[in-house]
Design brief:
Blueprint lengths: L6 E4 L3 H12 L5 E5 L14 E2 L7 H15 L1 H5 L10 E5 L4 H13 L5 E3 L1 H7 L10 E5 L3 E2 L2 H14 L3 E4 L3 E7 L2 E7 L2 E4 L2 E4 L5 H6 L8 E10 L11 E4 L4 E6 L2 E10 L9 H14 L8 E11 L6 E5 L2 E8 L5 H18 L20 H7 L12
Parallel strand pairs: 1-2, 1-12, 2-8, 4-14, 12-19
Antiparallel strand pairs: 3-7, 4-6, 5-6, 9-10, 10-11, 13-16, 13-17, 14-15, 15-16, 18-19
């Protein structure tokens, strides 16, 4: 393995791949990406694969999603790889408990130019007769969201990055970051030491562990969300949108000839989480309540993905005080695939120019947590609607 690099990126999920591409695009090509498994083997490859503007619950998250959405619409032209985007739309359903929150998000979205329509229970039933609307108070509809292929996105970014000179090493585990006199000196891997002045922590669920290598407490809590995919199920038309029940924190959408559904938001200290029968039973019960015809569906496969969450549902992007050259690009909370273009762009600007110019990253820097630790986040985190993982 090479022994030096201008930049070492730890992690080849969608954030690491995008960062590598944007660095190379900016002319920084002596970049090494180390990935302990293979591209997309972590949480990026376990998503429900939605490109969404409707998930946004703050102006900042919406601005990031809008930037990334526009870049994805030009992805094939820019990168040369299709992303298999299917614009089927997004419907959010809320019972009385969640109705005002959903309406407030809809008002914000419209103010930012995101097409969002409010639906009555009667309108929902007319459009989607399979849905049980007896306890639904209100819904919203966004026509521009849809599914896409995260693996094509990751490999597209990485292929173009490698064509421009970036090196990818799969099956190589980073085991430590060496710091000398307050700045990064290199990365230790199980295949040798790599001297570098800049390290990007794009470790996703492993970001907190990587932070500890340089004595930085990255305030992220990993949360598990499970997904089931049914066998062929023609009772749900293939052109149905992504439909979420925000009160139950459950969603479903067509997936090939079947249906994909997701549910759950449980803090976990284990990154290898199996889909358990209790979670499956709860998910199936919720599914049958909201879409009774799903009682006839058979389960084909399922898995559990991990979402690295922060206290305010915004990622952590930027340098770390006291450790020069250590850049955080983590805590994307399951929406990293949606926001990969802006994530890579901001990191590349920080490294290449010394500052981010596409948008102000002040609200994304680690200092906003004012010394809060991982345990603080775990204690204070409320896993409610704002924590829903709309892409995984």
């Amino acid at each position: 393995m090479q022994t030096t690099a201008d930049v070492v990126i730890i992690g080849a999920g969608v954030i690491g791949c995008s960062t590598a591409y944007h660095l190379a695009k900016a002319g920084v090509t002596d970049v090494l990406v180390v990935e302990m498994d293979q591209v997309g083997a972590g949480s990026s490859g376990q998503s429900a694969s939605m490109l969404s503007l409707q998930f946004c619950t703050s102006e900042l998250s919406a601005r990031m999603a809008q930037y990334s959405y526009d870049r994805y619409m030009a992805f094939e032209e820019e990168i040369g790889v299709p992303i298999d985007f299917k614009r089927t739309g997004w419907v959010s359903l809320a019972t009385k408990e969640s109705a005002e929150q959903l309406l407030e998000v809809a008002r914000m979205s419209r103010c930012l130019g995101i097409t969002t329509e409010t639906l009555t229970p009667e309108e929902i039933k007319h459009r989607y007769p399979e849905i049980n609307t007896d306890d639904i108070a209100v819904g919203t509809w966004g026509p521009d969201d849809g599914s896409f292929d995260p693996h094509m996105i990751m490999w597209g970014f990485m292929r173009r990055a490698r064509e421009m000179g970036v090196t990818l090493r799969q099956g190589v585990r980073a085991t430590g970051v060496r710091v000398q006199k307050g700045r990064v000196a290199g990365v230790q891997t199980d295949d040798g030491f790599v001297a570098t002045d800049v390290v990007v922590n794009a470790g996703g669920p492993w970001a907190a562990e990587i932070g500890r290598w340089v004595d930085v407490d990255v305030p992220i809590v990993n949360s598990a969300r499970s997904i089931l995919v049914t066998g062929p199920f023609p009772e749900i038309p293939s052109d149905r949108p992504f439909i979420e029940d925000v009160t139950a924190e459950w969603y479903f959408r067509p997936e090939g000839p079947g249906v994909l559904m997701g549910m759950g938001s449980s803090p976990t200290d284990t990154l290898d989480v199996s889909l358990d029968f209790e979670t499956m039973d709860e998910m199936v019960a919720t599914a049958v309540h909201r879409v009774p015809v799903l009682e006839k569906a058979s389960v084909l496969t399922g898995w559990t993905g991990i979402r690295p969450l922060t206290l305010d549902d915004l990622p952590i992007v930027g340098p770390v005080p006291g450790v020069e050259g250590f850049i955080l690009n983590c805590g994307w909370g399951g929406v990293g695939i949606i926001n990969a273009p802006i994530a890579g762009q901001l990191a590349a600007e920080l490294i290449g120019d010394g500052r981010a110019s596409t948008m102000d990253i002040g609200p994304l820097r680690i200092e906003r947590f004012d010394g809060r630790s991982v345990e603080d986040v775990r204690d204070l985190r409320v896993f409610a609607r704002q924590d829903l993982d709309y892409s995984s």
